[in-house]
Amino acid sequence: MTIIAGPAARALASLSPSQVRFIRRLPKAELHAHLNGSIPLAILQELAQSYSPPSADGQIGVSNDTVQAGLEKLRNGVTIEAIGDFFGLFPAIYALTSTPEAIARATRGVLDAFFQVDDGDEEPECTYLELRTTPRSTETMSREVYLRTVLSVTSSYSHSLPPLPESIAHGSTRRRISVIASLDRRMSVEVMEEIVDIAIRLKDEGLGLAGVDLCGDPNKGNVEEWKHIFEKARIGGLGITLHIAETLENSPEETLKLLSYKPDRLGHATFLDEEARKIVMENQTCIEICLTSNLLCKTATDLDSHHIRHWLKQQHPLAICTDDILPFRNSLTAEYALLFAKQPLGLGLTEDEVRTIAEMSLDSRFLD
Ligand code: IMP
Ligand code: ZN
């Protein structure tokens, strides 16, 4: 059961039952959800019960106390004042998802959050999901085993769901869940290259690996070093999405460099200057919009001044997404409620406008 709180919950609570039904029935794609940021708290608590800190080379891993303190923070609701408050949540989560069995359990929990139909709901949260995750190598698994484990869960889960309606399957896929391999800005170039090689191989095996992402602390890493990596991914047939211009500290030069990688989609794209906006417009590059994430991370002050307003005016391709439902305590339905609710709780869009945005999300999928 997903816990919903904060601005998206308030927007959702302001809607009538028929408006909520309208959102729920809209076919839509969730294109920007991080696996380890989307695990239901109850699943992490379950994994914590059998957790014991691993020890390697005399070094003790994350202690039980640290894990419990991390879970306690997530249970109480996270306040993010600085970027470190957000990235500091992950060591405790990662400690709990560091074996193939645990990452498989966590993946099933995330898929249930997006596809399980609760009492009173007719439809799941989304029609189609692209779940992204950073392959980790641990004592018990390599990066390839990590990805194969996630893909084996997503493939069998996808097959257990009714197929996509023909009208939105676009003839090319009946798959309802795909996986994106994330490259973390804190990784070495060698590790990024390794992941892209694995991703291309898994894509070629038809396992539902659809693309690569650039994520992680936006203030880390050197964009000058990565162009060939994304070029290889593109030639290998993978879709490319990049977290870009996420904070004010990301320079216009860095943003232009990332755009030169020719991404298919952009995550956040909050602080694009005029030159960058022009390129994004010309290429019609879809922007993955994560409203709650931006509000809670304080990269947007309010909905009214949010950059979505600019792109809506241009009728630019957008996808409304959740980012990390665990710390942000949102859901895809609640993110759509932020579009639909009257101002100031939401953007006050009409049914037709909301429907068009949902269609855009489906059109922006990385298809096989
Ligand atoms: P994972 O890739 O499944 O391990 O999901 C968690 C990871 O996603 C985090 O460690 C971050 O690197 C990344 N992540 C989650 N949300 C954001 C975001 O808003 N910006 C950049 N990276 C993010
Ligand atoms: Zn993200």
Task: Give a brief outline of the structure.
By secondary structure, this protein is of the alpha/beta class. The protein is 46% helix and 13% strand.
Written overview of the protein:
Its cofactor is Zn(2+). It catalyses: N(6)-methyl-AMP + H2O + H(+) = IMP + methylamine. It comes from Agaricus bisporus var. burnettii (strain JB137-S8 / ATCC MYA-4627 / FGSC 10392). Belongs to the metallo-dependent hydrolases superfamily. Adenosine and AMP deaminases family. One of its GO terms (molecular function) is metal ion binding. The protein is of the alpha/beta class. It has one domain (6-363): Metal-dependent hydrolases (TIM Barrel, Alpha-Beta Barrel). 46% of the residues lie in helices and 13% in strands. The protein contains 18 helices and ten strands. It has helices at 7-13, 17-25, 41-49, 64-76, 83-87, 90-96, 100-115, 143-160, 166-169, 189-204, 227-235, 252-259, 274-283, 291-296, 308-313, 325-328, 332-340, 351-363; strands spanning 29-34, 55-56, 59-60, 128-133, 177-184, 209-215, 239-244, 265-268, 286-289, 318-320. Strands 1-4-5-6-7-8-9-10 form an eight-stranded parallel β-sheet. A two-stranded antiparallel ribbon has the order 2-3. The radius of gyration is 19 Å and the shape is globular. 46% of the residues are buried. Inosinic acid binds at residues 34-37, 90, 133-134, 182, 184, 215-216, 243, 246, 293, 323-324. Inosinic acid is lined by residues 34-37, 90, 133-134, 182, 184, 215-216, 243, 246, 293, 323-324.
